[in-house]
């Protein structure tokens, strides 16, 4: 962000007047901390002033003044919010009491994403979110723009490919003709803005082979866990052309929503909410006695499944809403993702921002052979998570083809090295013993027959530890390191070696005795960094991975013992 050169006021534009509602909502959020002051004024105002005033009328007056102040402030924000975009930068002036000028150069802009909530859709408007390199949040937000104006700004700043999803009526999914917004087609300049490092990576991507060629080359590789070498082919070159597109089918969307592991988290949240309400709002009611009267002595066995079904329904509806119409496209060297029912979002990321890919398979998807593909990226997106969902659910047979179409620099290993069978104890054995010790007080103090539920804890720890040991593994090849892990959710991480920020090998006392070690790889992702671990692998293998994870073959020493 920089201060801009002075511009003529005639060039500056205002947002749509409907954006006053956006500023009202923003102001209400900012005033949230001051809301407790309003009842204090109503209760203590007459006592302090000595005036006898009806509390009803005083409340009405105070609330009216607060609403009037909110609307006036929103109107001032709208009237003093000005912007102008040209081929080099976008300039924004805003602020009521303190005037702020922003000038964002085109070279710093990483993506221009769009969001369209229900209110925007009613008026055919769209919100633009401008993200820059190194920003922890969107550098600028332009609410309530017409579809034509949003596309004009994207096209002017060199993000014409991202505008393909903006409809003339403010609907995501249709393209506004450039002639309708007074623009003429021009050559895309994305290639000019890419770094030499990215051009080198693109050349490596073009050298990838098809699955058949990789399989043939793999037969000449000695040793397990080796990634197949890349052999150039005309077919792969054709696969790198723009225009690839994939949309989730209704059947797969419902399958994804109905089998999500998030149901367990929602269930725990509902249990916490009900417990909180019972303590604070229903103090005079014996909730347990009431449930026993309604449902009998088996009230717990009946109420928990009902609560779980409610959590399942909430999770399903939320995932259907957030992933409705999920579609990914590759346009002008960028990946564009569109999704959402009530709030439609369109997000664009450049391929060079992808630091690693995660092939994820939750335990409920394992019997069906379903996977999801996530990307660890630099910069900030709407989500607070450090990974970006490229596609929520794919069949196993579709995963490799998906990577070839949308992320050809990444490839799934054909074989994996697995940790030793003797590593089962640190993965599952010792944690299970600790869990059994922890549940002893529960068996003593929890009343019958519910104290037996405490035994679920060591069983759960045993299951997750066994799965973690089973899923742990690694593979390596030229240009890429792959790590597999996870318990209830298996995650295979594909990491280009040039994306690794730092790596570390550690050993505790037990690992030192058994010649095992832990490898930790860290990448730049989201607002900070994202780390991946390979635990309790042979120390020699970890040392080899540590050395080969460096693009420069530096000498690395195994620590004697790290606590």
TrEMBL record:
Annotated transmembrane regions: 20-44, 56-76, 253-278, 298-320, 427-444, 450-467
Domain YdbS-like PH: 78-156, 332-403, 470-538
Keywords in alphabetical order: Membrane, Transmembrane, Transmembrane helix
InterPro entries: UCP026631, YdbS-like_PH
UniProt-recorded name of the protein: YdbS-like PH domain-containing protein
